[in-house]
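Message: A physicist's question: would you kindly supply an amino acid chain plus fold tokens?
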Amino acid sequence: MHDMDSRRLIGEVIDALPDGLAIFDDAAKLVQANRRFRELNPLVAELVEPGLDWGLLLFEMVARGAVSAHSRVALESMEMRLGDDERAPPPLELETRQGMIHVLTMRQTATGGFVVTQSDITEARQREESDREADTLLREVLEACPANLVMARIGDGQIIYRTPAARDLLGSGRDFGAHFASRGQRADFITALLPEGRVDEMRVDALRPDGDPFPCLASARLIDYRGEDVVLYSMVDISKESALRKTLSEQRERIFQAEKMSALGELLAGVAHELNNPLSVVVGHALMMREEASDPDTIRRIEKIGSAAERCTGIVKSFLAMARRQNLKVEAIDFAAAIRDAIDTLQQGAGALSARIELDIGLGLPPLQGDAGQIRQVFMNLVANADQAIREGGGSRIMIRAREEPGGASMTIHVIDDGPGISEEAAKRVFEPLFTTKAPGQGTGIGLAFCHRVVNAHGGTIALVPATKGANFRITLPLAEPEPETLPEMERTEPVAATGRVLVIDDEKDVSDLIREILRKEGFQVDSVASAERGLALARSGGYRVILTDLNMPGMGGRGLFETLAGERPEIAERIAFVTGDTMSPEVRAFLECANRPYLEKPIAPRDLRSLVTTMLKANHV
């Protein structure tokens, strides 16, 4: 009983420690870990139980996104150095995927095991960084405002002494009153000084040696010098400090805008993710109908549906690209065709354009370089905004003018309307995310922020140009570099050996129905289920040549399905591919990279699905 009480007491003492503590035996198995160790490692907390292998713990920390693979190598190296008799491994500082900074130390025990201690130093580092920033700011202010001293008789104002810094700042005049830009300020300074014999940082305007006024802070003390009342004062030039404050204010504003843009990106990513599944159904069925139709009128209608759906798909992917700042799909763009396509889309929408569109596009313009879908969306936003302003405030015309800049490196496009224009105050914030001048319910503040993000991502510029009437947006975009002519290659598709069974796992019935219909037309036998748990039970039979699963589903989801099969039946896990609408989050991208399995991003098209299945069948030789 005494031993049990001692162990209980030791356990309570360990749990009370402010730092994380984990004890491993000579076989690198966990003996005991305190509560703080689990709190510092929340992503693997449920695994931290006696008997857990050190190597498995590191593997799971990487797999679950707690630490990077580089940190895992460093931790393994620390363990290997425990047997070094010269000295123990130094502490390791690492940054978790959640942005926390931890310090880990490792010490060998007398029994051949080791003890790991883990401390959270995030707040300490943040304080250090804050202190460094404050010191840097103070140094910059002091360097911009050198100290100076002047001594003058209070009776006649004659200057007795000045430092070189004061001479550089204020000149060599004999009367200290000449340092003030106005007699009124001099009188106010003396009035404030006399009652108590001191003035602290009184705001006045002083004069430079060339007579230019500048703002400064005047501090003074009234002293007795050789039997005379003398004022000892300094004037600190704050003009540079004022400029510095303005710069810092602008930097804070840019940070604030970046945070708003990040929030906007998350919003757009959520909207795009929700649209992916229904768009997959529309795009997929339209393409399938196009392949099967023979009547010209029906084909024309289907092509219109498919074109509109694919345009929506491009917008969704633009939103995702905007949210995750992924690389652009760069290609040569015929601007004249792109702008006409954008206008046609707006004309065919539910609220057709009311303004007259005039195009002034120079002949023989070279192609732009960029993402055609995103560039088209930029000009759709600008034209739609101009049209709405004209509809509500008067006007009748929108002019789009494009010219190649001298030098042949860029193109300048103006979108000009004769509407009510934009106020000077609103013009300063027109590209801010979520800022809108429209009535509640009629504007989101997303459109122009999106335009700004896209144009900047293309290496261009967008600005609101002052105009006497209406609004004038000027956009510059880079031109495409000329490419050598190559003969077009005929598309070659190899037929799929369409035999065997395919398992489709997706909680969206319409999506699974679409995939099943596409593959059945290729001759496959297709089973579909709506949960990963049911899919796992079927997959264990080993009777499926290909398993297509969504990632995000209730329950274990596609990730849990893959990890379970990878542990139990690796040969079946090699037949899995993912069909998902979420590739934006770092966790999902890390998992896809670690899993090293093919994946198809929603919205899906029949051709892409067939290509995926063909690739998998060839890779698995089944």
